[in-house]
Each structure stands twice: as C-alpha cells, then as structure tokens.
Amino acid sequence: MDKRALQGKLGRRQFAGRAAATAGISLLATPGLAIGAGKGADSESVGPISLPEGAAFTPGVYVDQRARKPIYLPGANAGYAAHAVSEVLFWTDQLMEHGMFIALLMPGDRLRGPRSEARQFQMTFAGHFLSARDRGYRDDGLSSLLLSTRADVLQFIEYKRRMQRAQEAGTLKSLVWPLFFDHIAREAERFADRLALLAQGSAALQSDEVAAFWTTIMADHLEFVAHLLDPQERALVADAKARAEQLYQTHAHRVGSGQLATMADEVIDFKTAAEHGIEAGQIKSIIDPSLADHVLREAVRFSDEVRRAG
User: Among 208, 215, 255, 279, which has the minimal tally of Cβ within 10 Å of its Cβ?
Assistant: First the structure.
C-alpha cells in the first residue's frame, strides 16, 4: 500500500464474507495469547478472553462489520430496547479491551496487583457483554442490565483515575501513558452518564454533546497513533498530528453536523487504511492490530452518533 494514500480520502475496505466472524470472540491476540473465559483473573496469561459464539437476541440491534470485530449499533427502526442494548454491547466490549490493554502494559512482578485488577475488570465486562447479547430485552425489562453495568463502570472509572494519578506521581511505573488512563476514563464516564439516561427511559443523543465528546476522543486516538509509529514514518506521523489538531480545533470551534459527519468518515478511512498497513507490515509501528481495530470501531460509533444526534 502506498503510505501517501493515507493523506487523502481513502476508500474503505470491503468486508465480504464477514458473516463467518463470530460475535464476541476476540481476534486480537497473537497465537498463544487467547484466554478461556474460565481462567482466573490472577492468571499470568494476559490477552483477550474467548467468548462463546452468538448473536444479539434483542430485535433492532444491527451489526456493522467494517472492523475485525462486530460493531453493535441500533438499526434504522430500532426501539428503545435496541438503542440501550446496542450501547451496552458496544461499550462493554470496549471496556473489556481497556482492561486487556492496561494488563498488557503492566509487565513484571511488581505490577502484579494493578495488573490483576485490570484483568478482573476485563472478566467483569465480558460478563456484562454476554448478559446483553444473549438475552432478548424489551423496553420494560432493562433496569437490571443498565444498573448493574453502571455500578461496575463506576468502579472501573475509580480504578482508571487512581492509576492515572499514580502514573503521574511516579508511584506507578507502568507503560500506560497518563493521557491513555485519562482517555479511557473519559470514555467510561460518558458511558456511565449514558446508562443513567437510558435507565430513565431516554436514548436521545444531543448534537453538541456528541461533537464535544467524540472530537477529543478521535484527536487523542490520532495522537496515540503518531507516538506509536516508528520515528522514520515521518510523513504518517505528521499526517496523524495534523488530523489531531484539526479535530481539536473542531472541538473548540464547532462545525455543522454535515461537516462533522464528513470528518468522521475521513477518520474511519484513515484508521481503516492504517490498520490494513499495520497488518500487512507496510507501516512500521509498535501498534498492535487489536488497538488499531479498537479505535476503528470507535470511529464508526462516532459516525453513527453524529447521524443520529438531534
């Protein structure tokens, strides 16, 4: 792939044959790292959790297949239950991976304690994911799912913020940037707020809130990419930084929904091409394909929310 192609509008990959992809099964680790769901959270094996196959039972939940893992979104005519369940499915999957990423970036015996906590959260959100996926929900039967999920999200936020403070103070010496702790804490905080609204019966999205949240999240992603590329990938580093700055400027000076939707599509194209280049060995980096796929799924969610926000 010509690396210069990343600097312009990129055609998205076609995903024919993705029906064989299994919902909830992690495709993220190198061989030998997959962990069965039955293993304890204090296991020294660190990596994704293999979950049983299945499809969402709640009518109206749509699966977007532009990434390696399914992206759960509300369908065109989705009701309240489908909106709520798709949001729980999307974010519990992301939070499950947050636990995995933290654990991977906490090597060695001295980090065994916080690594074990991260692994426990990974297991916890795998459980919430399965609870949301493997049962058909109605509008009047969501309370337990939403409240129990939110309670664990709040605990994960406390852990992330505690780890962020320790990393900033130098008392935690992990490989996790303070900004990464902050970034994933903000995602969890927003999910907790959304769960509270959903528990009140509201699935509505506000355009200003969607723009404020996602522009900074996408900008952070691009800065992460810039710092994880090989220093010799100068053109791509500069491109990622320029795109991040554009999104930070968009956060400060709001644009219309049409322009924001276009920017979301451009981010999807950039991340899709980057993931392909990383997988093919055409881009030099220390970006694991799991992280590339993780941020791509969030870009697709960004695009979806921009189009649904009122």
Answer: 208
Q: What is the DSSP letter of 229?
A: B
What is the rounded distance in angstroms from the CA atom of residue 215 to the CA atom of residue 247?
Answer: 5
Domain-embedded: residue 29: no
Determine the Cα–Cα distance for residues 232 and 75; give it in Å rounded to an integer.
Answer: 43
Taking Cα atoms as reference points, which of 205, 201, 195, 204 lies closest to residue 149?
195
Residue 281 backbone phi and psi in degrees, to 5: 75, 20
Containing domain of residue 65, as a range? 58-204
Query: pLDDT tens digit string along 171-223?
Result: 999 999 999 999 999 999 999 999 999 999 999 999 999 999 999 999 999 99
Number of domain units in the chain = 2
- The residue to which tokens 């913020």 are assigned: 161
Looking at 159, 179, 204, which one is the last position of a domain? Answer: 204
pLDDT confidence of 15, banded at 50, 70, 90?
Answer: very low
Say if residue 98 is in the same domain as residue 199: yes
Q: Which residues of 163-175 are buried (b: 16+ CB within 10 A; e: fewer)?
A: bbebbeeeebebe
pTM for this model (two decimals): 0.86
Is residue 109 classed exposed, middle or buried when 0-12, 13-18 and 19+ CB atoms within 10 A define those classes? exposed
Decide if 64 contacts 71 (C-beta within 8 A): yes
Amino acid identity of 197?
A: L
